[in-house]
Amino acid sequence: MSRTRTRWAPAAAAALLAGLSVNAVTPPAAAAEASPALSVSYAIEARIDNTETTVPTYLYNYGDAPATDVTVAFDASGLRDVTIKAWEYAEECKLAGAVVTCEYPDLAPGQTEMVYPFTLASKPRSEPGPAGTVKATIRGVAPDGSTHSGGGDLDVTIVPTGPDLVAQAENLNTADSRVGPGDEVGFRGALYNDGDTPAEGFFVRIQLPTGGRWIDQYEDCTYIDYWPGEHPDGYAYGPSEVVCTAPLTLAPDEGFLLFDPESGESIFNAYFGKNLAGPTETDGFFEVGLLDDLGENAARVATRKGTGKSFADAVKSLGSAKKGAKGVAREVDTNDNAVFYKIWTKANTNDFAVTAEPVSGAVGDTVTVPYTLVNNGPSDGAAGWRIVAPTGTVLVRGGDEWCYFLDENGHRTDELPEVGCGIESEWPSKASGQGTVQGAIKVRIISEPGDNGTIKVTSFGPSKDNVPGNDVVPLSIDTSGGGGGGGGLPVTGVKAGIAGGVGVAAIALGVLLYVFTRRRRIVTVVPKN
Q: What pLDDT was estimated at residue 161?
């Protein structure tokens, strides 16, 4: 059975249809010879707007013989200002012109089949009211080879759509004009109402990647900082997200620019710091919506205001707002409310370093080896590290939350001769206040340890480590004194998931994998006031 079909037993179908308002077709009288009797009806009244409405449809065989090679054609050529499409999941249906044709294998005697063959949508700003009729023709072949047909009409009415806000944004720069430390660039975005009803008030939300911050301050905007605290001059650790509200009306087809096309001056300007990773291509994010759709940002906007001039006044000064009748409370189509814009960054460098002190123990002991890793910057980045046990020893799971004890099949194991380790986020420079990781690995001494144990950190991502000499240190265990080991340091520093941002590091099966998560809409950090 096709996944777009739902089969009903005759009794169940009759009970269901008795409670629905559908365009039912009365079963014809039984013929002298067994034959199929085919017809079509619909489970909804087709009151549509300019968002696609899927039309659930019933196919009937009221006859006493099966119908095979069933074909149903839905003809929308008589509709005005309406677009018909085959439903995206209805693989058995094809569109040709204004007709969707679907093919089904069979309909048994007394069978009712629910299918989802097509969608309807009004064209933008269509006049509300009756729009015509979809005419269906169903055909099937009886056991004796004769063809039997039936039909069913669907009357269509266009209703007002409501406001439909659309976001637009230019790329912040180009690959030939990359941004880097100290650069300032204006954001060129716009929004407009593509609906047929005025939008009463709106919000905008704009995000930058880590390494950028918004310069301009407005009293009716909320600034969100995912790296709170003081940072050295020249570094940009936020605010990288701004949410602004404006009680302005956008009439249908009306829009607002967030920049002056003549002077090039922008309402929002971004500053990039020494910690901006590169060279790379990354994304910013721009979203618009009705005030009622602020969601989780509503509380932030109500309690955390910026300072200075009014964002709403700045927007209004770039173009007049036409006043209109109040629109619906919520927007109908939010699929086009957000866009990503590209940012190209200049080359930068970082300096990942690792340190570890020797520990002592005796054969048979399990000792703990503390170590420290730091990104000296200036660039934020990503890195992983690998710990190799000296000969005569083995690494033991449970001492270090950063390391992955996985065997060759990816299953967790308790002991390994070497392990890969990493943090599950971008790794900021120490200028952020959170660029240091402290770990402690457990080592079981089996026999006299060799001198070939190491801890090595490896930088990956766009910025290059320009000080490779401090990337590796010995993992040294001294058994000459016969002392025991244990204890260890608490693990502090950059926790997994500390940044909802650009770099994601994963280490599995000893392979360092790095993925730049370019879309930043989902943030895993709760910002502090």
A: 81
